[in-house]
Request: fold
Amino acid sequence: MLRIWRRAVNNVMLSLTGICAFVTASALFLILGYLLWNGGKSLDWNFFTKLPLSPGELGGGMANAIVGSAKIVAIAALLGVPVGFMSGVYIAEFSGKAMANVIRYSADLLNGVPSIVIGIFAWTVLVVPTHHFSAWAGGFALSLMVIPVTLRATEQFLGQIPQSLREAALALGASKWKSVATVIIPAARTGIMTGIILGVARVSGETAPLLFTALNNQYWSKGFDEPTSSLPVMIYTHAMSPYDDWHRQAWAAGLVLLGLVLIANIAARMVLARGAASQRG
Amino acid sequence: MRSTVLIAAVLAMAFPAAYAAETINAAGATFPAPIYQKWFQEYHAAHGDVQINYQAIGSGGGIRQLTEGTIDFGASDMPMTDEQISKITRFKVLHFPTVLGGIVPTYNVDGVKAELKFSQETLAGIFLGRITKWNDGALKKDNPGVNLPGADITVVHRSDGSGTTFVWTDYLSKISGEWKSKVGRGAAVNWPVGLGGKGNEGVSGQVKQTPNSIGYVELIYAVQNKMPYGLVRNSAGVFVKASFDSVTAAAAGAAKNMPPDFRVSVTDAPGKASYPISSFTWLLIPDKIADATKREAIKGFLKWMLAAGQNDAAGLSYAPLPQPVVAKELKQIAEIK
Amino acid sequence: MATASRSVPGRARTFFQNVRAGDEVAYLITFLFAASVLLVTAILVYELWVKSGPAIHKFGFSFLRTTTWDPVNDDFGALPFVYGTVVTSVIGLLLSVPLGVGAAIFLSELAPPRLSNTLTFLVELLAAVPSVIFGLLAIFALVPLMRSYIQPALIGAFGWSPFFKGPAYGVGVLTASIVLAIMMFPYIISISREALIQVPREQREAALALGATRWESTWDAVVPFARLGIVGSIFLSLARALGETMAVTMVIGNDPKINASLLAPGYSIAAVIANEFTEATGDLHLAALVELGLVLFLITIILNGVGQLLLMLTTRQGTAKS
Reply:
C-alpha cells in the first residue's frame, strides 16, 4: 500500500520537475519567438541606415543608436577590462590574503550597486563637473559594471591553474612576473576571455546607467564628447511613446540588441568549450 | 563584413574633423516636443551646419540640466520661479514664449463615442479621487443623454516632473479650493489617485491602452493618436473644446498685459471663447553664450522660429504667438550676448 | 641586458636584482589597478552619502517610516518605495523559486545529459537578455494579458480578499512581480543546478540502495546536501531583482502608495529614481532620491553578502572531492 503511494508520489513529483524545466525553457522560446516575429516584421534597411525622424514621420531608423551603442560599449570595455583583469591578476598571483579579501569584497560591493545608482554616480562625477552629457560618461558608468565581472572571471580561472604549473615555470628560472605573463595567463586565457565577453555583452544591454550620462541624440554624435544615442535608451523611449511607428522601431531595435547579445554569449561559450577541450586533450 | 563597416563608421564618427555641423544640446518639456522636433529638423534642413539635439525629458529636467550647465538651452511649460533663476549664477535666464498649447482631458471609455463635457467641479472631483465611477451623478449632469458605464475611473497622471502637470494643477488650483489646499500646483505633486505615465507620450499611451481611463495631455498628443478628448467649462460657463481658435482666444488678453520677462499664466482665462487650460511654453535661453558659433546659431533659430516657424503651429494643433508678443521677443533676442 | 660582473656570486646578485625589479614593477602595476577598484567603490559610497546629506539631515530615520512623497511641499518618505521594491521581489521569488528549483532538480538529476546541457545552455542565455527587452515584452504582451484575462480571473476568484481588489489595470505590483520572476529563473536554475551537481554520487546511491524511490532519494538525500547553495542562489537572485529598474518601471504603474491589493499600482525605489532624477527641481527632492538609492544599495549589499556566504559554505561542505 505504502509502496503504491510512494511510487505515485515519485511519478508525480518527477513529472512536475519536468514540467518546471519545460515551462522555464518555453519562456525563453516564447520571448525569442515574440521578439523575432515583431522585430522581424519591423526590421528594414532604413533601420540600419537612417537617423530617427520626428514622431509621425515614417521611414526613420536607428543607425546612430547602433553606432552610439558600439562607441559606449567600446569605452566601457577599454576602461573596465584592463582594470578588472589586472586586479584579478593581482589578487590571484601577487597579493597577500588580507588585501585579496579587501579587493574582492570591494568588487562585490561594486557589483551589487543597482545600475540606476551607478548612473547617478557617473552623473555626479562626470556630467556635472564637465557640464555635458557624453559617451565618455556613459562608457564610464558601464565600465563600473564591467570591472567586477572581469575581476571575478580572471581570478577564478587563474585560480584553476594548478600550482604545479607555476612551480614548473619558476623552477625553469623564470621570474615571477614572467611566469605569470607567459605561462599562467595564457593557460587560463579562454576562461578569462569568456568571462570578459559575457560581462561586456551584459552591459551592452543596460539602459539605466545611460539615462543620465549619455542621454540621447537624434543626430550622429561627433567624437565621444556629446550626448550619444544608444539602442537600449531608444528602445525605452520608443516603447513608452504612443506612436505606432515608434513601437515598430522599438521591436526592431530590441531584436537587433538581443541578437548581438546572444551572438556574443554563444561565441563566448564556444570559445570556452574549445579551450577546455584543447587543454584536456 | 558588417563589423568592418561598423568599425569604419565608428572611427569616422570619432573624428570631429569629418563633420562641420555644430551640435547644440537642448532638453526640456514634452508638451511642445512635437513642434520643437519638427522645427529643429526643418531648420537643420535649411541650415545644414546647425544641429539642435532636443531631448524631451520633462520641464523639470530642462530647468535642472540648464542649472547644471549640461545643456545649451532648455524648454519648459512653466516659467522658472525667482528661486530657480537665482540659483543660476553664470547667466540670467531669458524666457522666450514659442507657441501656445492646450491641455486636454483625454479619455478611453467603453462604448462612449460622444464627446464628453467636464465642468470644473467634475474635473477636480475626478482627480481628487472623490468621483470614482463614470456614471457618477456629476458626470451625468455634465453629459445629459450620454450612456455612461458604471465602470471605475482609472486616473492617469505624469510620473515625471512636468510643465504639463504644472499647468494642469495650476488650473485645478484656480477652480477648486479643495485641490489648492490638498494638493497644490507644481511640476510634480502628491497625486491623490492614479497611475503614473512618463511624459506626455507615457500618459497618452497608458490611456489608450487602459479601458475607462482618463488622463491629461497636450492637445497634439490626443490628436495624433486619434484619442477622444473632452470639452471643459470655462470661467464664462461655456463648454469649450481645445482648438486653434479657443487657445488663441485665451492668449488674447495676455498679449496686452505681457510682463517684460514673459512669465505669465493664462489658465482659466476670461472670455466666452477661451479654452481654460491653455498655456504658453517657453524656451529658456541664457543671456550670455560664450561660444560665438552657438550664439549666432541660437539667435538665428529664434528669429526663424518667431517668423516662419509660427506657420507650423496650426498644423500641429498649437496656436501661434500673438503679434505684439512676437515683436517684444524679437527685441529680447538682442539681449543674448 | 645585464652586464655580469666577473665572479659567479656577483653575476648571481645582479641576476636576482633584475628579477626582483621586474617583479616589483609587476606587483606595483597590478596593485595600482586593484587599488583603483577600491578607490572607485569608496568614492561611490562617499558621493551617495554626501549627496543625500540634506535629506538625511532633514528627515533622519523617519525617512524610512513615512509614506508621503510630496515634491511641492518638500516632504519625502521612503516607505512606499521600499514596500514596492520588497513586495515585487518577494512575490517574484515566490513564483520563481518553486519553478526554478524544480527545473534545476530535473536538469541535474533526471534529464539525460545531452538534454540537460542543451536546456541549461538555453536557460543561461535567458540571463543575457537585457532588462529593457523584458520591459518591452511586458508592456506589449504581458500587460494586455493581465488586463484582459489574468487579473479579471483573479478578481473573480479572490476579489473578496484584500489582496486582489480593484480594477484590472493591467499594470501593477503583480505584473511587475511576474516580470521579475521570469528574470530570476536563469539565476536560480543555473546556480541551484551547479550546487546539485556537486553533491557526491554516494549520497544518491546510498539512498537508492536503502530502497528509496528516485524522487525520495533526490528530495531527501541530495537536495538537503545542496540546500545552502540553493538558498544562496535565491539570495543572489533577490539582490538582482531589488535593483531591477527598466522592466519594473515600465509595468508597475508608478503610484507611490501602499496598497494591500496586488493588482494596484505601486512604485519601486529604482523606478522612482529613473523617473524623477533628471527632473528633480528642488535640492531636497534630489537628495531624497539619492538617499533612496543609498537605502537600496545597503539592502543589496546585505543580501549579496548573505548569499555569497551561503554559497561559500556549500562549496566547503557540499563537496567531498578535491
Observations:
- Residues 2-42 of chain A form the longest helix (41 residues).
